[in-house]
Amino acid sequence: MQANTLSGGFVDPAIGSAHAFRSVMEAMARPGTIQNIEGAAPPAPLSPAMGAVLLTLCDTETPVYLAGDLDCKAVREWLSFHTGAPFVGPAHCMFAVGAWDALAPLTVYPIGTSEYPDRSATLIVKCSELAASGATLTGPGIKDKATLSLPDVDAFQANRSLFPLGLDFILTSGDRIAALPRSTDVSGSSSEAAAHKGAS
Amino acid sequence: MTEYNFAYLDEQTKRMIRRAILKGLAIPGYQVPFASREMPMPYGWGTGGVQVSAAVLTPEDTFKVIDQGADDTTNAVSIRSFFQRTAGVATTTSTSDATVIQTRHRIPEEPLHEGQILVYQVPIPEPLRFLEPRESETRKMHSLEEYGLMHVKLYEDISRHGHIATSYAYPVKVEGRYVMDPSPIPKFDNPKLGDMAAIQLFGAGREQRIYALPPYTKVVSLDFEDHPFEASKADHPCGMCGATDSYLDEVIIDDAGGRMFVCSDTDYCEARQAAGHMGKDNGGKDAA
Predict the structure, then answer these.
(1) What is the tens place of the pLDDT at every residue in A135-182?
(2) Which domain holds residue B80?
(3) Residue A114: which of B24, B143, B212 has the nearest Cβ?
(4) Which residue, of A22, A181, B52, B217, has the greatest Cβ tally within 10 A?
(5) Region B53-67: what's the mean pLDDT?
(6) Among B109, B128, B110, CA closest to B169
(7) Would residue B164 count as lying in a domain?
C-alpha cells in the first residue's frame, strides 16, 4: 500500500461531497456548461475532477470499471480505501472511468432496459481539454444551444438514438467537468471528430 | 448541529439519492426507483421532498419551504426548521433570495431564475396509477409509450362534464416521451413547468420514486385539438393585494357565507402589499 492511498479524500466528506455533487448536478442538468469541482487529490493518472466525482457517487453498491492505464495499483488501492467500490468489467459496471479511446467500444456497457432505463452506466471520461466550442448541443437543459468540445460526435449521436436507453457521460479535465446526458442532441463536429472521420 | 450528520441523512443514503437524481435528469420525466428512508416525520408530510433536499443542500444555500404557496403553515415551518437545525442553512421566505425551494403543491408566482432548485413533494408519482393499479403494468405502459388510457380518461371527463374536469395533478408529457405527474399542483401552474430556468426535482418518499426536469425542458399538458388545455383560476382579484394574475385560495370568513379570495403564494402577496398594492378587502382601490 502506498502512502498516498490513505490521503486525498474530501477533508470534510459530508460538506465536500455536497459541493461536488452540486457541480455534477449542474453539469448534468445543463449540458454544455463547464463546472469547477474540487476537494479531491487522487493519485495519478486520476485527475482531481475524476477523483471528486468518484468520491461523490461511488460506494460498495456501485461496480466500477477502470479502463486503460487507470487500471493500476495506485488507483485501485485509493478507490478501494475511499469508496469500497468493487471492480468489474465494462459489461457489469455502473461507472466506467478512463480516457475516451480506452473506454471504446461503447456497445459493451449496460444501457438500461426499456422498463428500467436508469439501470445504465455512467462514463467518466478523461479529456485533454474542455472548452465551450466545437460540437453544437441542443435538448433538455439547454436554452437555445450550447457548444462543447467533444472527443467524438458520431458515438454521441448513436447514443442519443437509443433514448430513453443509453449512456450518460461526465467529461473531465483537470479540475473541471461537463456532462452529456443521453437526452442531448449533438450536431456539427469538433476538430478531433473531423480528424477521426477523415481517418476512417 | 453536531448531533447530526450534515443535512440529517448518512452519506451512503445521500450518494444513492444523488445517483437517482442524476439518472432522473438524464431521462426527463422518468421515475427512478430509490431506497426511500424512514424520516422523522410521517409519510405524506414531504418525506420524498425532504430526502431530495437533504441530498442537494450545501451549507451556503438559502432554503425556502412552501405549503400550497404559504411559508407559514405547519408543514412548511417544520421542514424549514428541520434543515435549519440539521444542515445549518440560512432560511428565507423570499422566492428570489432562495437557492433551494421545497414545495408542496405550488410553483411560486415569481419566475425562478438559473441557479435555483425547486424540490416538489409528491404523493403519487405514477400518473397512470388510478387507471391501472399494478406497478408491473404501468411500468410496461411507460416502456411502450402506451398512454391511450390517459387520453380516454380525459375524454371521459369531456363526455361527462363537457370539459376536462381534472383541475390539479394534471398530466403532462415531457420532451414528447414520458407522461409525468406534476404532483398535485393546480393546472394553473402547469405552463410554468416547461422552459423553466431552474432545475425541478420531484421526490416521492412513500412510493420511493425520484424524477426530474432539467431547465428549459419541453413540457406539454395533455389535451385535444378541440378541447385545448386551459390554465384556470378563480375569476377574482386577490382581496389583499389586488393581483389579477396569481392563483387564489377561497377563504370563508364568517358564518353567513362570506368569503374572500387571496393569493395562495404568501410571499408574492406580501411583496405586493409592501409595494402599496391593496385589494378590496384590504382597504385598497386596486380591486378590478
Answers:
(1) 999 999 999 999 999 999 999 999 999 999 999 999 999 999 999 999
(2) 11-125+169-221
(3) B143
(4) B52
(5) 97
(6) B128
(7) no
